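Researcher: Structure for this, please.
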Amino acid sequence: MRIALFLCAWLTCLGAQAATVDVASLDRGTWPEKLSSPALFDVASRAEILMFAHTLLASEALDEAALKQRLGLKIINQGAIDDLRRHLWQRLLENYGFAQQSCEQDASFCYLVDNMDDLREQAGKFEVSDQSFYIGWAGPSRTFHQRYLDELLRKAALFPQISSEVARFGDFERNGDELNDRLFLLTFDGGPAPLNGQTDWLADYLRKQKMTATFFALGNSLQTRLEKTSAADVQALYQGQCVGIQGWQYRSHSHWVDWQSSITRSASLTQNLLPENYVPLFRPPYGQRRADSQGFFQAQGLQVALWDIDSQDEPGQLKADESAQRVLTLMLLWRKGVIVFHDTQDKARVALPMLLQATAQSGLGWQECREAFR
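Model: Predicted structure, token format:
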């Protein structure tokens, strides 16, 4: 008991320190061009990749003491941080390779990068001159990527004691790495909202746009919605969309005694109520799940569905337009991935149309929900 109490206190302390971070967002108005073609999407993508790579490279000069101070933590998992950095560099190299395929159309931010050494060299000397057309973007972008990198490094520093989407425990966990370039999957957490709330609006909006998303439902919210309406109404709510599970309650599944029951109860309800929509995916609230859970998930026929583009649309985080601009910047940086909003919040109602308008001519695509995570 003493050990358990000490561990809980330690984790609470670390979590409290981790919560003090400034959430990264970037005013896309500082970027002087619309993303009105695939080539212009690539220009902006190359710029964000190089700025993030520059920031990542600079962070490697910090020793452990300096890194602890920067992240505001007393204890860090240096091995997990090193693993994250290797993964980030690999993604950046791959993404820059895709982004430079249009250099013949527009050579802005195009440099000779054939391998990791080339990328690190270009990252080290990357700067935007005062006379550049893009100088208004450079300072805000640098601040964004420093904050965003700190978000990632902090999560890695706490992993696996506090698990998150920043790393996987095995192949039974998916995070969108397998998607093709320029392809994004929309996901929504924490629903369904009360009757005639945000879930209704979002699902209807997606159908009108001929798009699909994966809604990760909470068992208790789904049960409440069922009791206040009917099975037919709930089925109509999610028509054409995919529905995964998020457990019975929106709480961490890493140290909850009843975590398995939470998952099996919500899976049974969702599968029986929505057989046409159900997908065998579990989205852990806060990204927190147990390191030793692979056997359970495999026995249940479930995969853990993580994400890599967080809208930060929860209460107390970003405003709706800031959330949209954060997501768009991360779409340019990562060029593919799983985007997470919350359908109990009203911010996605503003952010999603902004995203679609900003990227309508950029050549990207939206992953059909049933084809994801296969």
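Researcher: Any notable elements?
Model: The two ends are 42 Å apart (CA to CA). Confidence is low (pLDDT under 50) at residues 1-20.
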